[in-house]
């Protein structure tokens, strides 16, 4: 039995765990466990790639002068060239790549290494040449520089940063599930961080709204050490400017390098948060970009995995000297799925010699992390943050609006009924039939593919309210993992797969038996959704759905 059971982990959590496993037999045992249980293709691919890497290392080091580049992945090429210090060998590799696979990313890796090596050679025997820093306003004097007018941009270097801040979104008076998921993950990350670095940094929950104080006990129960909230009756709906101004004012409260005249605060003695985490909901995406832009730092959007590790960087713009390497500590690694659904890109927010990039910020796809168990016995510090709000921020008044009774958070449902472009022959009837099936279940809701959201379909008024971006499932929408996911008229594009492939059971309805969704569905019903959905609804209402699911895995 291997030490790590892959079926207990999400792929984003598993990647960092297996990178230090050097026993191919243990990896094969993990692969067997995955195949006999969850059988997730991305997880199997991850383990198989690690097996290949371990076995290639066992066979001896790769000789860059003789290796067949067609046998290497881009990642293999990147790892290999890091150890090559001969520019001529690297140029030969580059020519062989161009004549063979001609992969853009592989060529870029080799070219970057050539630049690093030649920079090192130029510096041999003398002090390494530092990269010249020219402020943007001097380098490009003819361009406008709006960042110069930002009240928060200070261009700090070497300031003090602490804590992980979590923006906790509420909707219709309720703390949304993704807020609880992020708090649980932040608690896990900061507990490990404090052990690793012998620190005592906190999880800070930020609440903004007309009823912010109502949620203080909940966010502490889900993992916060400190709650900073601002409550105002004018904040009942999300508004870009006041929410951004409030968050940034909180982030810059107190601190040794605070702006002149700003009063110190007992609850925060550092300059800015070390990390900020937001939900990748519609409002959360807006706020995260606005806050990180106002604080003049970076943002990794739509992440599905987070972990904190040191990072070795050789980019001259980051280390300050061509050819040098530098280890950056306490870096938030922000993982997000790429368009294939099988690989993850890891985004880092790294300082420059003349510029700090903090806080390191991420927005998190709902459903990416497990829902923690609340502990209402936990204690936490609470700050009622006082701040005068400018009346000009509220010039637009919303006098009337409708709210869907089912809400827009799809992550907590037992069943999701999702429809795609297959409804195109009669869009209104397609939505009606999907809603009928939703209503037949005890705990279900309606999801949509991006194709429906971006289409020019005309819907009758009584269903038009359901066709909103909030219901979109996929890489640019919500990620869900219900007990049952019913995909009607959805082809199975990889962007949609990312949002639903962790569901326990996927039932696809499609007229095309070779549609891509077949590859990751448990059941494929070949047929017209307009005929199949009513039958499924009837089967649910009569308790016969189990019998209808007795279909061949083929």
UniProtKB/TrEMBL annotation:
Q: Which SMART domains match?
A: ETF (SM00893)
GO molecular-function terms, A-Z: electron transfer activity; flavin adenine dinucleotide binding
Its Gene Ontology biological processes? fatty acid beta-oxidation using acyl-CoA dehydrogenase
Family listed: Belongs to the ETF alpha-subunit/FixB family.
Q: Where is the composition biased (Basic and acidic residues)?
A: 98-123, 136-148
Name listed for the protein in its UniProt record: Electron transfer flavoprotein subunit alpha/FixB family protein
- The Electron transfer flavoprotein alpha/beta-subunit N-terminal domain sits at 164-396
The segments labelled Disordered in the record are: 98-148
């Amino acid at each position: 039995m291997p030490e790590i059971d892959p079926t207990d982990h999400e792929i984003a959590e598993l990647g960092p765990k297996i990178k230090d496993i050097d026993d191919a037999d243990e990896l094969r045992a993990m692969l067997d466990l995955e195949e006999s249980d969850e059988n997730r293709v991305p997880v199997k691919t991850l383990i198989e790639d690690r097996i290949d890497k371990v076995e290639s290392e066992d066979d001896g080091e790769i000789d860059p002068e003789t290796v067949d580049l067609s046998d290497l992945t881009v990642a293999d090429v990147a790892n290999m060239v890091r150890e090559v210090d001969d520019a001529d060998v690297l140029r030969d590799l580059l020519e062989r790549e161009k004549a063979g696979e001609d992969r853009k990313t592989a060529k870029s890796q080799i070219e970057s290494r050539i630049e690093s090596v030649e920079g090192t050679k130029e510096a041999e025997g003398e002090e390494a040449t530092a990269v010249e820093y020219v402020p943007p306003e001097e380098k490009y004097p003819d361009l406008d520089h709006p960042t110069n007018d930002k009240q928060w941009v200070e261009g700090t270097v070497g300031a003090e940063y602490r804590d992980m801040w979590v923006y906790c979104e509420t909707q219709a008076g309720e703390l949304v599930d993704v807020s609880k998921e992020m708090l649980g993950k932040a608690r896990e990350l900061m507990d490990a961080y404090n052990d690793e670095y012998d620190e005592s940094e906190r999880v800070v929950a930020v609440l903004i709204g007309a009823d912010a104080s109502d949620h203080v006990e909940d966010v502490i129960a889900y993992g916060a050490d400190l709650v900073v909230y601002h409550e105002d009756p004018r904040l009942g709906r999300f508004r870009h400017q006041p929410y951004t101004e409030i968050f940034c004012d909180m982030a810059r409260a107190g601190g040794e390098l605070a702006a002149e005249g700003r009063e110190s605060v007992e609850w925060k003695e550092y300059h800015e948060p070390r990390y900020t985490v937001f939900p990748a909901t519609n409002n959360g995406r807006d706020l995260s970009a606005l806050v990180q832009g106002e604080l003049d730092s970076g943002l990794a959007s739509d992440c599905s995995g987070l972990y904190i590790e040191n990072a070795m960087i050789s980019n001259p713009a980051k280390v300050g000297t061509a050819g040098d390497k530098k280890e950056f500590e306490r870096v938030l690694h922000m993982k997000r799925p790429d368009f294939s659904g099988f690989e993850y890109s890891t985004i880092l927010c790294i300082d420059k010699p003349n510029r700090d990039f903090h806080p390191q910020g991420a927005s998190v796809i709902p459903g990416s992390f497990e829902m923690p168990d609340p502990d209402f016995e936990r204690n936490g510090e609470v700050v009622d943050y006082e701040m005068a709000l400018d009346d000009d921020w509220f010039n637009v008044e919303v006098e009337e609006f409708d709210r869907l009774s089912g809400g827009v958070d799809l992550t907590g449902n037992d069943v999701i009924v999702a429809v795609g472009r297959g409804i195109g022959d009669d869009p209104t009837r397609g939505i009606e039939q999907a809603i009928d099936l939703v209503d037949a279940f005890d705990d279900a809701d309606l999801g949509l593919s991006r194709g429906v959201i971006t289409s020019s379909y005309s819907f009758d008024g009584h269903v038009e309210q359901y066709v909103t971006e909030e219901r979109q499932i996929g890489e640019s929408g919500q990620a869900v993992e219900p007990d049952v996911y019913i995909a009607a008229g959805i082809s199975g594009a990889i962007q949609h797969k990312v949002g639903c492939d962790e569901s326990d059971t996927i039932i696809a309805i499609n007229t095309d038996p070779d549609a891509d969704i077949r590859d990751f569905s448990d059941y494929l019903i070949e047929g017209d959704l307009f005929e199949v959905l009513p039958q499924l609804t009837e089967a649910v209402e009569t308790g016969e759905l189990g019998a209808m699911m007795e279909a061949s895995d083929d």
